[in-house]
Specification:
This protein is of the alpha/beta class. The protein has one domain: 3-Layer(aba) Sandwich (Rossmann fold). Helices cover 24% and strands 24% of the residues. A hairpin with a 2-residue loop joins strand 1 and strand 2. Helix 1 packs parallel to helix 2. The radius of gyration is 18 Å and the shape is globular.
Length: 312
């Protein structure tokens, strides 16, 4: 694996301006920002139905090459390294890089995890990876709204998810796998994320997309969170025009030129006290949104990455 690190990274960890959360997972002590943190550069907290669920499900073979995109606290990189993989972890957030380096050092994995500043696959060699794993920013946000770096997915939730999926196959060697989580718009029985991964992978590959909560819900539940944002009416109309009436929370798996292994049950970590469900997720969102300062709700310029891919 190769990457060109062109940005000087300088951010303190642990921070001196906010409390640190410590999560115990599979013998690891992992620091991150807490769930109530609303700083623009927060290090994404660890939730039982997100990073911890994905970390518990990882099963790379020893000595395989793993890329963790948007590593945040480094939890997925650490889970892969525990199984003997060689890991490259990337992020665009300097504070996340500092946090991940702290966690890898503190847990004794500094020699098996390399952490670099990179945006998705920028600067990486193609066709070299055995596994790509990611818990990317996927929360759909109204047009022209800049939410937090770790969460905002743009008006279709695909700002990061789309390029992550679109180029995944080219980054994998034959037999390599891609695994990620996403909250995704869609219709009953189908999601944008599923269409993205089915378009990105080819005949002879294998794709599996599963609803983690077992079913989708109406997009109205999400739109109600943004009721005070000025463009909510036009956003609602835009989604309706594309037939995007449902919200899915999915585990996406794909393999290049080989079948996927038999599906394992999507299970929360054994030590979890969180019963994964849409109601529980939206209670978390509601508590978080109530803590958001008005300075977080700021306009931004809309870019091409906010558009639905042309083939959808």
């Amino acid at each position: 694996m190769r990457s060109t690190e062109t940005t000087t990274i300088s951010a303190p960890w642990p921070p001196d301006d906010r409390p640190v959360a410590v999560t115990r997972f599979n013998g690891l002590d992992i620091e991150s920002d807490g769930p109530s943190c609303v700083a623009q550069d927060r290090v994404f907290p660890l939730f039982d139905d997100e990073s911890l669920l994905l970390a518990a499900a990882l099963d790379p073979a020893p000595d395989t090459s793993v890329l963790d995109v948007g590593t945040g606290s480094g939890i997925l990189a650490l889970a892969a390294a525990q199984r003997g993989a060689t890991v490259l972890a990337t992020d665009v957030n300097p504070r996340a890089i500092a946090c991940a380096r702290h966690n890898t050092d503190a847990n004794g994995f500094a020699n098996s995890i390399k952490i670099l500043h990179a945006d998705v696959y920028t600067g990486l060699d193609r066709g070299k990876l055995d596994l790509i794993v990611a818990n990317p920013p996927f929360l759909p946000t109204p047009p022209e709204l800049e939410l937090l770096l770790t969460s905002g997915g743009g008006p279709y939730g695909t700002r990061i998810v789309s390029p992550l999926i679109a180029d995944a196959r080219a980054m994998l060697r034959d037999g390599g796998r891609f695994v990620c989580l996403a909250v995704s718009f869609g219709s009953p029985g189908s999601s944008v994320a599923q269409q993205l991964v089915e378009s990105a992978f080819s005949d002879g590959d294998d794709v599996r997309v599963r609803d983690i909560y077992g079913s989708s819900i109406s997009v109205d539940r999400l739109l109600d969170l943004y009721a005070r944002w000025h463009s909510i009416t036009s956003w609602r109309r835009m989604l309706a025009d594309h037939g995007l009436t449902e919200l899915h929370y999915v585990l996406i798996e794909a393999s290049k030129a080989t079948p996927l292994p038999a599906p394992r049950a999507v299970q929360l970590p054994p030590e979890s006290t969180f019963a994964g469900s849409w109601d529980a997720r939206f209670r978390r969102y509601e508590a978080w949104f109530s803590a958001l300062d008005c300075t977080v709700w700021v306009p931004r310029s809309r870019g091409e990455a906010d558009a639905l891919p042309h083939y959808l």
